[in-house]
Amino acid sequence: MLGVCYYPEHWNEEWWPEDARQMREIGIRYVRIGEFAWSRMEPEQGRYDWDWLDRAIEILAAEGLKIVLGTPTAAAPKWLVDLYPDVLPVGEDGKARLFGSRRHYTPASEQWLSETRRIVEVVAARYGRHPAVVGWQIDNEFGGDDTVLSYGPEDAAGFRNWLSQRYQSPQRLNEDWGNVFWSMEVNSFDEVIPPVGAVSETNPAARLDFWRYASDSLAEYCALQAAIIRKHSPDRFITHNFMGFFHNFDHFKLAESLDFCSWDSYPLGKVEHFPLPEAERVRWYNTSHPDFSAFHHDLYRGIRNDRFWIMEQQPGPVNWAHWNPAPANGMVRLWTWEAFAHGAEVVSYFRWRQLPYAQEQMHAGLQRPDRQPSPGGLEVAQVAREIEVMGDLPPVERAEVAIVLDYEASWITRIQPQGDDFNYKLLLHAWYEAARRLGVDVDVVAPGQSLAGYKLVLVPCLPIIDDRSLAAFKATTAHIIFGPRTGSKTTSHAVPWELPPGALQSLVSVKVSEVSSLRPGVSLSLTGSKASGVATHWAERLETDLPADLTYEDGSAAMVTQRNCSYLGAWIDGDFLRQIFADYLKAEGVAMIELPDHIRLRKRGALTFAFNYGPMPWTVPFGGILFQIGNEVVGPHDFACWVDG
């Protein structure tokens, strides 16, 4: 089904009935409202104005539209900030991040938590049982605008409390952090300060714990709101709209209080923000990379209950990237169907109409400011007609390949990259892309999650191997490929005494004796009986008695295998990865097909979808199939869907 984000408070009330009617007519069924409207809900402390929102909900409901109501905590009103300035987050420079945008709060503030309880309580009590309100979105884009880490007095106090519960004594803290180095030892938790503002780099163990604390605080904040909503609004779903390529908190942990995840899909904006080579940015500038959206569909489907929504789908140019092109003709339709192919229940577009004022005035909507359909709006109407023809889609089945995403890996490799261009997101993306180029579906799983049923498990980088992860690896019959820096840290961000890969040595008899980070332009040749290529970014010297699958020029091992586990101690590119993955997929009996770099396949039950991100047509190479949408020639920026005949 289709949805849209709507802001009745932005528009002349006389337009609301016509807007609702047009939404229904083009196939919209869900409408998200309210997530930035605190100043209209409560213009002054304790004085509420619900009349406008009551009318908006009734008008939308009269057209049969189902409402997702947002809690308004992502944009505190000015009067609240003036009364309680300690709610503001504090940057690394020690200065408060002031009113004038959004996300200007820290969940460490007790006053902020009190204000949150109050506004969520009154909104949920008023609308929680309204028949048109079918679900809730908590807050908006947690952590957006770099707001996970805050360094004010409230945050410092919360951090100390978190540490006291984790370590119980300052002596244990000193030991685990290695505070004997540089005389960093403390005599009490009260002496601990956030790891920022020092003369040179701060203790990586302290930084990792501070990130854990901040992540836990957000998860607790989300759970606080969810508990209030469930009390007043039974039998309605609760979700949150996460973002793409955003790793600043543990999404798996935060989602525990949700019914399912949603995410905000901005494919073109992410091309500009992701560290792709410039030639790749140019190539995909108006389509996006074929694996950007797909990866996040698989991630958010897997995080919570095998369900997900797109809460905000890009419908045209955005306003916040370095460059903001219009999507190529057909891409809004393609992105929508790609989301459905990966299991999305609803695709909701941001926004109904382009707003002609304020910060996002250059952000497209389904309508232009003059209330006429935008190019994206016309494509959405086509999608709605196709949905009517297709009917209900079958459920998404478990893939045969899984990739492990670890948020702490992202934090650890940013805290201590050891090479300026070691980027966990880029490594993760390269492994996912390499598998998808072989035509296989991929599930994204958490560390320690059961791996039963998979045939190939990819672990691009998992620095900390905890007991749950090790048990999951030992229990699976799948072949597992571990990438560089796996098992390289203890839970306290130290090098294991037994050397990396630490606890993983019980599965693969190998030690990492030395690592080299490789500057741009430097590469090391790797050769093997079934694959060859070069290492860039990162190369590890392995000590092992196992035969080498890949070797460096000096004959030393770069990759080894023991039973169903392989350890790859180098960063290698996508072509090289595909050679390796294809060999193991073949051995595991997984059907695959090498795809052009602009074509991706996705199965949903008996349906197979093909998506063409490129400028040239692609001919489907399979016979005996029945097309549901499209035909055997998939045009540029188009897709096809078929079942086996």
UniProtKB/TrEMBL annotation:
Protein's UniProt keywords contain Nucleotide-binding: no
The protein's Enzyme Commission number: 3.2.1.23
Alphabetically ordered keywords of this record: Glycosidase, Hydrolase, Metal-binding, Zinc
Catalyses which reaction(s): Hydrolysis of terminal non-reducing beta-D-galactose residues in beta-D-galactosides
One BP term from GO: carbohydrate metabolic process
A molecular function GO annotation: metal ion binding
Annotated positions binding substrate: R102, N140, W320
Coiled coil: none
Enzyme kind, highest EC tier: hydrolase
GO cellular component, one term: beta-galactosidase complex
Domain Beta-galactosidase trimerisation, first and last residues per copy: 399-590
Active site: E141 (proton donor), E312 (nucleophile)
Domain (Glycoside hydrolase family 42 N-terminal): residue spans on this chain: 5-388
Membership in a protein family: Belongs to the glycosyl hydrolase 42 family.
Protein name listed in UniProt: Beta-galactosidase
Organism: Rhizobium lusitanum
